[in-house]
């Protein structure tokens, strides 16, 4: 299912509107006690009398001019919106952005677009500008999130560039959402400063994991991919410092043309030097941003690296490390790798192709990034139930 | 090859600049053609002589696969990157970590009595009736106190003899006493009874059920080979062993009993039969051991009756057979190879008592003799039976735990057993996979360090390690089997 999280087609129905963008939480209960309404945005289906006191109103049916301030017509857009979702409304731009979906298993929060790496396959290219408002906004909405939220992702840009603000942010999550797992995507370089790693550890978040990309066993490979000399040393030192202070770390390796040759060597290096990391994810490309502009230089068909991938997984698995394959469809993976494949793509950017409708393995498969349509593996083909007696065997259609 | 967009620099912009520098390493000949080079933490690369020369002369070309592998495995570093030093230090610490948690194995000689009369026996056996060769309860209690003074989080108490089941009352007493103390100490506590199983009975098995007790027995091979050397008046030692093994598995589970074999001159041409006997008895593990030069074995000169080359031939043939069993679908591990492979490929230290540096004397294992004397190792106690008290650390009646563990005897032995400083070991490529055996060298050469050029221990280690590395390099199917043992 592909979900649109941002739109610019709100139509204001009330003359009185906030001049500035504002945040609020979706509520479908018009009878909510008045005293609890100030941060809530009432969502109604049909025409009805709108009770006062809500921060704003969204209606799916066209009505005349509304008496309440900040009433917007959204029609059939954002059909998934429901109680507890957190949105930003930008009246000037007729914009609505969904920041948090209560029903989603995984909500990802962008905290900065600045980054000190410049990865050749970056799916979210960095922007060098002051965007401190992003983290300010996150601070504001944390108390509005459901304490039952299973997991929140923090992403960038490079969250490590926030410095002590990142530590404060993790602390705020710990206090307001103590049962929510927190996953931070970071290049790890900032944690080469042991004091920073220690500060993060001292927050004592009960379920924190840092996902740190490492693209090779050699500095020249990693530094090239991230386009920063010295990044390999800093990232490794960051990982060591975090683990020294008992912060959980996941390594993320993106398989592309420049990294695939040393993928088995990378696995050996990790099993030997970084055995204590908590998880290793071997990931396929997400064809967005720089990955798209550099596509011809970095693309390799997954069919052409199954040997290297299988060898790497075997090395890591034999070392009793937790290893997963992300962003790969089952039909392009060697069958011995199927048990390591995870359906890892966030629902809002996940889709399946036409032929997937006929595929027996679809329910177990991670599918595609919405962005994958620009280049696809030769191996994409549905699995069909073999028409034979005996045990059920999945095999590929020609 | 397609280019990156203009805002990106290509690979050459990130290539290391300047000459490379070497990290500490040792190399030895692997075979006629090749050398093996190892670093301090046990990573290795096999390379031919010209490549080795180029490496050492700083003439190796960056960008080649060999250069990349040597750099990845921390044999060299270059450019501005120095993180190799951090990682090497960390790996060294990981491997050495276990030394701080000393003495996991505590052996209790609960009696010296035995019902067998084996010619090669390592201990000076006594007649069964003479209960003055039993350990006293007072000594046992004192030894249990020593056990819990060791910082090791995992504790194994092994009952030895003689035949320990001849003094089962004391075993029961020690188990209950240790478990009672462990309620406070919370260690991972297990017990092993090293027995020939002739005295196994339901009462013993019933007791074992409620406790974490395992059995270790001897199985030298087929019945004739086993009985030839394990003389049991009025009976077959082989029969007692295989019957006992079945009874233990029935009562305590399939993993509750392990078997050890000892190689004798008669074994040498029969390694396949020996391995097959283990398969027949349902074992998935065998330790192909060499004959130890202690006890009666030395006195009867058995040890000189076969050369280490014969044993290596025996071992290589046995290992081949075991690998083939695996390839045919019967999982089986050869434990000596498994220990060495673990040292080669696992980043953490290996606890095998007999291959440590410093030696495992006192700090990997310690033994409390039936008479209250404390020895640094089982073999050290056997040497004492022959009149050499080099490895006697003290006595349960006279010495405190601190006095034993900090005694000059022990500290000097440990100092003299660190391979990093021993002649011929310090520059041997196999050093990270090896260990010290001071008792062996004292017994055979009269000196705890020994001259390695004349050491059959050294010869055996090198031969087996060369063989394993060559298999890993040259035989893909064998490699997969060996890797599964790590």
Automatic annotation (TrEMBL), chain A:
Record CDD domains: Radical_SAM
Domain Radical SAM core: 99-326
Top-level taxon: Bacteria
Signal peptide span: none
Gene3D superfamilies: Aldolase class I
Cofactor requirement: [4Fe-4S] cluster
InterPro entries for the chain: Aldolase_TIM, Radical_SAM_PqqE_MftC-like, rSAM, rSAM_paired_HxsC, rSAM_sf
Pfam hit, one: Radical_SAM
Protein name listed in UniProt: His-Xaa-Ser system radical SAM maturase HxsC
Organism per entry: Nannocystis bainbridge
Classification of source organism: Bacteria, Pseudomonadati, Myxococcota, Polyangia, Nannocystales
UniProtKB/TrEMBL annotation, chain B:
Gene3D superfamilies according to UniProt: Aldolase class I
Domain spans labelled Radical SAM core: 98-333
Native source species: Nannocystis bainbridge
InterPro entries: Aldolase_TIM, Elp3/MiaA/NifB-like_rSAM, rSAM, rSAM_paired_HxsB, rSAM_sf, Sulphatase_maturase_rSAM
Encoding gene, per UniProt annotation: hxsB
A Pfam family that the UniProt record links to this protein: Radical_SAM
UniProt protein name: His-Xaa-Ser system radical SAM maturase HxsB
Cofactors: [4Fe-4S] cluster
Keywords for the protein's UniProt record, in alphabetical order: Iron, Iron-sulfur, Metal-binding, S-adenosyl-L-methionine
Annotated NCBIfam families: rSAM_paired_1
């Amino acid at each position: 299912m592909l979900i649109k999280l941002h739109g610019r087609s709100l139509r204001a129905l009330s003359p009185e509107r906030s001049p500035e963008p504002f945040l609020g939480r979706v509520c479908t209960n018009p009878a909510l006690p008045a005293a609890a309404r100030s941060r809530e945005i009432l969502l109604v289906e049909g025409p009805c009398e709108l009770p006062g006191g809500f921060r704003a109103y969204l209606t799916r049916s066209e009505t005349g001019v509304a008496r309440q301030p900040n009433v917007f017509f959204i029609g059939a857009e954002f059909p998934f919106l429901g109680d507890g979702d957190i949105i930003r409304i930008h009246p000037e731009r007729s914009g609505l952005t969904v920041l948090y979906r209560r029903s989603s298993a995984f909500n990802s929060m962008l905290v900065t677009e600045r980054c000190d790496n410049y990865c050749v396959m970056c799916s979210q290219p960095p922007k060098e500008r002051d965007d401190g408002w992003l983290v300010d906004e996150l601070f504001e909405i944390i108390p509005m999130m459901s304490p039952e939220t299973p997991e929140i992702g923090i992403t960038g840009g490079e969250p490590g560039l926030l410095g002590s603000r990142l530590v404060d942010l993790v602390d705020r999550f710990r206090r307001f959402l103590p049962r929510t797992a927190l996953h931070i995507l970071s290049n790890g370089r900032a944690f080469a400063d042991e004091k920073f790693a220690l500060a993060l550890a001292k927050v004592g978040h009960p379920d924190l994991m840092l996902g740190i990309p490492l693209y090779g066993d050699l500095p020249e490979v990693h530094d090239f991919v991230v386009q920063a000399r010295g990044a390999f040393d800093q990232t490794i030192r960051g990982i060591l410092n975090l683990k020294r202070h008992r912060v959980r770390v996941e390594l993320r390796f993106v398989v592309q043309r420049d990294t695939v040759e040393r993928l088995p060597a990378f696995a050996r290096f990790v099993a030997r030097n970084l055995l204590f990391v908590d998880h290793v994810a071997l990931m396929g490309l997400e064809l967005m941003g720089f990955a798209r502009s550099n596509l011809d230089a970095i693309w390799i068909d997954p069919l052409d690296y199954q040997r290297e991938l299988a060898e790497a997984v075997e090395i890591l698995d034999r070392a009793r490390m937790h290893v997963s394959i992300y962003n790969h469809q089952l039909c392009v993976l060697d069958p011995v790798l199927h048990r390591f494949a995870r359906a890892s793509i966030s629902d809002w950017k996940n889709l399946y192709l036409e032929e997937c409708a006929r595929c027996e393995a679809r329910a177990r498969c991670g599918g595609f990034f919405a962005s994958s349509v620009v280049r696809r593996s030769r191996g994409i083909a549905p699995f069909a139930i073999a028409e034979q007696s005996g045990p059920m065997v999945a095999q590929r259609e020609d | 090859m397609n280019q990156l967009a203009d805002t990106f620099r290509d690979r050459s912009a990130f290539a290391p600049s300047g000459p490379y520098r070497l990290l500490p390493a040792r190399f030895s000949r692997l075979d006629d053609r090749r050398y093996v080079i190892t670093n301090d933490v046990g990573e290795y690369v096999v390379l031919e002589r010209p490549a080795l020369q180029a490496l050492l002369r700083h003439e190796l070309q960056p960008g080649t696969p060999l250069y990349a592998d040597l750099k990845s495995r921390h044999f060299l570093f270059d450019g501005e990157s120095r993180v190799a030093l951090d990682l090497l230090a960390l790996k060294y610490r990981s491997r050495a970590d276990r030394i701080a948690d000393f003495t996991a194995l505590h052996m209790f000689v609960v009696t010296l009595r035995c019902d067998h009369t084996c010619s090669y026996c390592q201990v000076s056996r006594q007649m069964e009736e003479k209960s003055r060769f039993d350990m006293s309860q007072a000594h046992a209690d004192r030894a249990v106190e020593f056990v819990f003074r060791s910082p090791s989080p995992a504790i194994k108490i092994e009952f030895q003899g003689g035949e320990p089941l001849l003094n089962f009352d004391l075993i029961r007493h020690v188990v209950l006493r240790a478990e009672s103390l462990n309620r406070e100490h919370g260690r991972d506590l297990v017990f092993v009874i090293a027995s020939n199983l002739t005295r196994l009975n339901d009462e013993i098995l019933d007791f074992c059920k409620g406790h974490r007790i395992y059995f270790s027995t001897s199985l030298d091979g087929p019945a004739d080979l086993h009985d030839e050397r394990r003389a049991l008046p009025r009976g077959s030692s082989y029969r007692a062993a295989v019957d006992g093994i079945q009874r233990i598995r029935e009562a305590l589970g399939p993993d509750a009993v392990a078997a050890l074999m000892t190689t004798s001159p008669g074994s040498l041409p029969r390694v396949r039969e020996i391995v097959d006997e283990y398969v027949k008895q349902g074992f998935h593990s065998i330790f192909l051991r060499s004959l130890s030069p202690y006890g009666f074995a030395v006195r009867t000169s058995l040890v000189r009756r076969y050369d280490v080359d014969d044993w290596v031939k025996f071992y290589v043939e046995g290992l081949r057979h075991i690998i083939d069993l695996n390839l045919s679908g019967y999982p089986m591990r050869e434990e000596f190879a498994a220990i060495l492979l673990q040292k080669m490929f696992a980043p953490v230290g290996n606890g095998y008592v007999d291959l440590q540096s410093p030696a495992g004397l006192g700090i990997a294992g310690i033994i409390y003799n039936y008479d209250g004397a404390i020895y640094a190792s089982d073999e050290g106690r056997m040497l004492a039976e022959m009149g050499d008290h080099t490895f006697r650390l003290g006595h349960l009646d006279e010495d405190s735990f601190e006095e034993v563990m900090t005694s000059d005897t022990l500290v000097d032995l440990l100092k003299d057993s660190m391979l990093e400083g021993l002649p011929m070991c310090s520059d041997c490529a196999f050093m990270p996979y090896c260990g010290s055996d001071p008792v062996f060298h004292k017994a055979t050469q009269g000196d705890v360090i020994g001259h390695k050029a004349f050491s059959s221990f050294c010869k055996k280690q090198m031969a087996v390690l060369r063989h394993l590395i060559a298999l890993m390099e040259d035989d893909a199917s064998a490699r997969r089997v060996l890797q599964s043992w790590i």
